[in-house]
From TrEMBL:
It comes from the Bacteria. This is NAD(P)-dependent dehydrogenase (Short-subunit alcohol dehydrogenase family). Belongs to the short-chain dehydrogenases/reductases (SDR) family. Pfam families: adh_short_C2. InterPro entries: NAD(P)-bd_dom_sf, SDR, SDR_fam. The lineage of its organism: Bacteria, Pseudomonadati, Pseudomonadota, Betaproteobacteria, Burkholderiales. It comes from Comamonas odontotermitis.
Length: 234
């Protein structure tokens, strides 16, 4: 039997990140979790992994998790990048500071973690990076302006990363959730979804676990909508 594979989940304390951590654990991965609330540290303990309480906007906090995971398990096969919630507001009323905050929350979270983990994956012969993005990345909505701005940029970053790191057998894909049950439910939003329901955090977690698996070994550079058919573009 080979060495156990290891996944780290950034922003994995609750919601989709926590669901991803649980599903990866069920798939046989050892897990490391970073979360600002302390819930990630508790979940990691429950799953027999490594937890750090800290922010994905702080390189030192992420380095602490990477170091702790490497010390305990000696490898990192999968990186899952979740995100918090960035600023919203009327388009032209959003301040420069809030646009920059959106980049911090929805884009630089991925860049920072990838800088830390990609060299480890390269040295061990491969790995998979999965970013939790948003279904609205390509059909921007006034509801989520800073998210749409940053996550369309994340799609470009992902494509360039795959061009450069594919030869090292490192894959990167984005999962694009629609209305998920970790958000407050609104009837009119549910009615707009062809499947007539909100998705579950576990369904996002299952998609993440698939993209981390050998079954997805030839999938890279993709933006995979998990939105019940909500988005219209082909």
């Amino acid at each position: 039997m080979g060495q156990q594979k290891v996944a780290i989940v950034i922003a994995g304390g609750s919601g989709m990140g926590a669901a991803a951590a649980r599903q990866l654990h069920q798939a046989g991965f050892a897990v490391g979790i970073l979360s600002s609330s302390g819930k990630g540290e508790a979940l990691a303990k429950e799953l027999g992994g490594v937890g750090v309480t800290g922010s994905n906007q702080n390189v030192a906090d992420m380095q602490k998790l990477v170091d702790a995971v490497m010390q305990r398990f000696g490898r990192i096969d999968v990186l899952v990048n979740g995100a918090g919630h960035g600023p919203k507001g009327d388009l032209l009323a959003i301040s420069d500071e809030d646009w920059i905050k959106g980049l911090e929350v929805y884009f630089l979270n991925v860049v920072r973690a990838t800088r830390l983990v990609a060299p480890i994956m390269q040295a061990q012969g491969g790995g998979a990076i999965i970013n939790i993005s948003s279904a609205w990345a390509f059909e921007p909505a006034a509801l989520f302006p800073t998210s749409a701005m940053a996550r369309s940029g994340l799609a470009a970053f992902t494509k360039i990363f795959c061009d450069e790191y594919g030869k090292h057998n490192i894959r990167m894909n984005n999962v694009l959730p629609g209305w998920i049950d970790s958000l407050p439910k609104k009837d009119e939003r549910q009615a707009a979804v062809p499947l007539q329901r909100y998705g579950t955090a576990d369904e996002i977690g299952a998609t993440v676990a698939f993209l981390a698996s050998e079954g997805a070994a030839y999938i890279t550079g993709q933006n995979i909508k998990v939105d019940g058919g909500l988005m219209r573009h082909i």
